[in-house]
Amino acid sequence: MNDAPSDPFGQASDDGASTSFDMLHEKVRRWIWHQGWTELRDIQERSIPVLLEGQRDLIIAAGTASGKTEAAFLPIVSRLATDERKPGAGFEAIYISPLRALINDQFGRMETLCEEVEIPVWKWHGDVASSVKERARKRPQGILLTTPESLEAILVRRGNEAKRLFAALSYMVIDEMHAFMDAERGRQLQSLLNRIEIAAGHPVVRVGLSATLADMRTSAAFLRPLNPDGVEILESQMGSQPLKLQVRGYIQPRLKQRDANSDKGEATESIADIEIATHLFDTLRGHRSLIFAGSRRNVELYTARLRGLCETSGVPEEFFAHHGSLSREHREEAERRLKEDDRPGSIIATTTLELGIDVGHIDAVSQIGPGHTVSGMRQRLGRSGRRAGQSSVMRVYTTEMAIDERIHPIDAMRPRTVQTIAMLNLMLRRWNEPPQIGCLHLSTLIQQILALIAQHGGLTVKQGWNRLIESRVFPEIDQALYIGVLRRMKHPEVQLIEQAPDGTLLPGEEGERVINDRGFYAVFMTPDEFKVITDRGRNLGTLPVDSPVMPEQLIIFAGRRWRVMEIDDQRREILVTRAYGGVPPNFGGEGLPPADEVVAEMRRVYEGIAIPRFLDKVALECLTEARETFDHLGLRHASLRRHEDELLLFPWVGNRAQLALVLALASHGVKANSEGIAVTVPAKDGGKLVAALKTLAERPAPDAEVLARLVPDMQRAKYDAYLGEELLARCYASEHIDAARVPIIAADLISRLPAEATTIFETKVPL
């Protein structure tokens, strides 16, 4: 099928035309022909026979914009169009997405395909009208596009209808599967897939789609826990688009004094921020781009700055904010603007546009700072360069402090620049963060036990074991821990469940309240929020209740500047009017430390001599300074240096191992703090530090649960508050502390202690 067939229903020719194309239903072939496609992508060619057969689970791993969705649904729709079915007999395929916006985006594409073969398509999530859901419920058929939370709501609220709704189900497609793995939502999703198959009464083919899977064996185990070896894996063989990549460095002079405007509620922007915004404006105005600013606060600051540059330059407004606290209407307005191919525009976003939401053709992607993950960086890069012959374009902006006599050694090591280089190196080598194994996810286990009780009107201990543990949804949980969780849920001070005389588990007083709460269907925490409403009645979005916003305060929100007129505690609303000045509110929940392999690559960058070609002049100077500081501190061979009254310890490990080391030192009376790539210890505790490291190196690994109890607040997940200290410590340890590596790390640090360690403890060594 190298050329568009003159007969869209013709058979394969002898000149190497696509055989997979000919396997599709004739109306699906007609749809392809109407799209003007000249060929199928390689991943589509290979997925069609597998999914038409309808017997094997499948993972489709291919880059962004490689046609993964069509690789799944061209054969699925063909199969559904061929199979005889009774109208209203049940949904025949489910598409599950992590984002409502992605569902809305896919719905239009799916609807045009399914109209051709007269298969209904339904959206079902929190923004869909109840009347639409009611029509789908009364006459279930075709394809259902939904989220895990909406599936949970269906099963909990319509448990007695589950068999009727899913009796005809043949396929379950999980889009952006990597976004679920190693997360609370992922465990919920695995449980939901299992519960739906039980309701349907037969196995259902599972299809996982992703552009950034790191470990295919682990991914197969996620998709089908009881039979990972039976999962077919298709990885795209297509070559990558040409790549244009640049890291731009900016130096921030040390502020002499606090800006006078900061007391007036105005944003104190750094010189580097202003220079970055100016370059973004000069480079991207008149083009179509995505700018990933990192935090919601940064999104607001850069959007306001870029809009201000449009205003002062007398040009049309082209820059729009996009993050999770903004209203759906505001986000969709920005998305619609970029879908207009004849108009330039740029969206400044957090991770909200990292996944596959279609915003049309993108000329370039920009990123401020190194970002959180390598896989996320790859997702972002894939948003540009989608047209034939076009390069993918990415610019990464990094900021470092000017070096002077007051600079801290860690800042002089230029960690942002080096982390950016390390992550780009790993991205170019096609590395992705592997999923973390061994996490207990007890908060989600509690939620799923309550969900099963609500779905079925009650649950036996054995039924819960079979559906949640034997199914390998929670493979790390043994019988003793499972019973321990149930006993905790039944405890008088918890009262999530109670047990009937025949042994049936029922909701307790607190369990009833939790199940009936509107936020029950989501396993992630949803903060209590206020709506932000303009004086003209427009909903801009939401702010957390604990965000310190006061009447008359000037804020930046949705990329514009506002004055808070009134805060209505009863209606949970913040009324604002347009103003000048302002700072973004505190959104919270931002920032993640790098993974082990990122830190290891940073060390390789420091130790190496290679000069990446993608650095601009300032970024290159920062790399040179970083390596000079690294050598000046003697870090090629030493693990410890002193700066003023603190010791800098360099273990060169990621966040979980570093936290384990910090807690293990604390257990030996050494006060240590994580500072990115280094751990700081008071210089007066130098002797105590060496003694603790020697002890840790010689003894077996410390107990992770004992270390966890040293953490002031271990609660991280939604239902952690019900666990009690013992279960909470065990859960926290499994997810955040890599205690097994402590002896190895300690031994390595001891082996790299400088010969003059005693002198270092006693003398303030200048940088």
TrEMBL record:
PROSITE patterns: HELICASE_ATP_BIND_1, HELICASE_CTER. Keywords: ATP-binding, Helicase, Hydrolase, Nucleotide-binding. Residues 49-231 form the Helicase ATP-binding domain. Pfam families: DEAD, Helicase_C. Gene3D superfamilies: P-loop containing nucleotide triphosphate hydrolases (3.40.50.300). The keyword ATP-binding applies. GO terms for molecular function: helicase activity. Residues 276-429 form the Helicase C-terminal domain. SUPFAM superfamilies: P-loop containing nucleoside triphosphate hydrolases (SSF52540). SMART domains: DEXDc, HELICc. It comes from the Bacteria. InterPro entries: ATP-dep_Helicase, DEAD/DEAH_box_helicase_dom, Helicase_ATP-bd, Helicase_C-like, P-loop_NTPase. This is DEAD/DEAH box helicase.
